[in-house]
Design a protein that fits this description.
The protein is α/β, with parallel strands linked by helices and 328 residues long. Helix content is 41%, strand content 17%. It is built from eleven helices and 14 strands. It has a seven-stranded parallel beta sheet, with helices on both faces. Strand 1, helix 1 (11-22) and strand 2 (26-31) form a beta-alpha-beta unit. Helix 3 packs parallel to helix 4. It is globular. The relative contact order is 0.14. The mean pLDDT is 95.
């Protein structure tokens, strides 16, 4: 089966492409820059160059494809033009679903679309959580939430789309801006992490990238139009995360917790440098604000209805460290 894949050049996208190839599918990768496809076997995929916002290139890419895996998104801390998030994450997603017509679509959303989990039982929420539609932190979170509203509306109108909400992705792969955990692993291993940002008792959900890619195949095989599934793994506090990572690396976990005011000030400094020197900041004030909340999720629906399984954090971090630091 020939399927169109958007976002196939990204951190998660490459893992998804490999999973599709392993399942015997024929991926056609819709990308803006073919030069970012390193690490994939280009002899086994088709490449269609274009942009989600150019309908003509999108229509050409869809020709002959029976289904779509839409994983493309603007995943950045900051860009000079905030509207870029809206154009890619919201308008691009809606354009793709409308152009795809009756083709089956598996859409990769984000846990951010569901909102923080502070008000959930034990700091954990599921797919039915009703987030505050007027409160968000980053432009990425804002536009993934807005896109989720649009996609649900299109699904109610008959669009054959299944929406997936991966937790924080981690595991082997390119060191893109979306590979947050990979950067944490390298920084901690190199002694560049001064402490744990804010309070260490905030829960986050972590999902191994290959498990999530497999979850996309399960959703394609078993999901029904309009279905929505969280693809998670283990929920744990920041203190627990670094305790596990330290154990894998044979180090002592950090004990210092950096006060929110200090983290916020460091983020402001990074933003000033970004504007002065036209470079990406390592942290933004909006991102710093997310550290004050729980972002933990219940993936029992995917486990029950799809047969999805997310591996334990220690197992996943061990595989991540072995991939990123093979000679340690």
């Amino acid at each position: 089966m020939r399927v169109l894949v958007t976002g196939g050049s990204g951190y998660f996208g490459k893992s998804l492409v490999r999973a599709l190839l392993g399942a015997g599918m024929r991926p056609r990768l819709f990308v803006r820059d073919p030069g970012r496809l390193g690490g994939l076997d280009l002899g086994k995929v088709e490449v269609a160059v274009g942009d989600l916002l150019y309908r003509s290139s999108l229509r050409r890419a869809l020709e002959g494809c029976e289904a779509v895996f839409h994983a493309a998104a603007l995943v950045k801390r900051w860009v000079p033009d905030r509207r870029a998030f809206d154009r890619v994450n919201v308008e691009g997603t809606e354009a793709l679903i409308r152009e795809a017509g009756a083709r089956r679509i598996v859409y990769t959303s984000s846990f951010f679309a569901l909102g923080c989990s502070d008000d959930g039982p034990g700091g954990v929420i599921d797919e039915d959580h009703r987030r505050d539609p007027e409160h968000w932190h980053t432009d990425y979170e804002r536009t993934k939430a807005l896109a989720d509203v649009r996609v649900r509306a299109l699904a109610s109108e008959g669009a054959p789309v299944v929406t997936l909400y991966p937790a924080v992705l981690y595991g082997p792969g390119d060191m893109t801006e979306g590979n947050i955990v990979g950067r944490l692993v390298l920084d901690f291993a190199a002694g560049r992490l001064p402490g744990i940002p804010c309070r260490g008792d905030r829960k986050w959900g972590y999902a191994f990238v290959e498990d999530v890619a497999g979850g996309h195949l399960l959703a394609f095989e078993k999901g029904k139009p309009g279905d929505r599934f969280i693809l998670g793994g283990e929920n744990c506090t920041a203190d627990r995360f670094f305790e596990v990572l330290a154990g894998v690396l044979g180090r002592r976990p950090p004990r210092l917790h950096l006060p929110y005011g200090l983290v916020w000030s460091a983020a402001l400094f990074q933003e000033v440098l970004a504007r002065l020197f036209a470079r990406d900041p390592r942290l933004t004030r909006a991102e710093a604000a997310t550290y004050r909340h729980h972002w933990a999720y219940d993936d029992s629906r995917a486990r029950k209805e799809l047969g999805y399984r997310g591996r334990p954090l220690e197992e996943g971090l061990r595989a991540t460290v072995e991939a990123l630091l093979p000679k340690r």
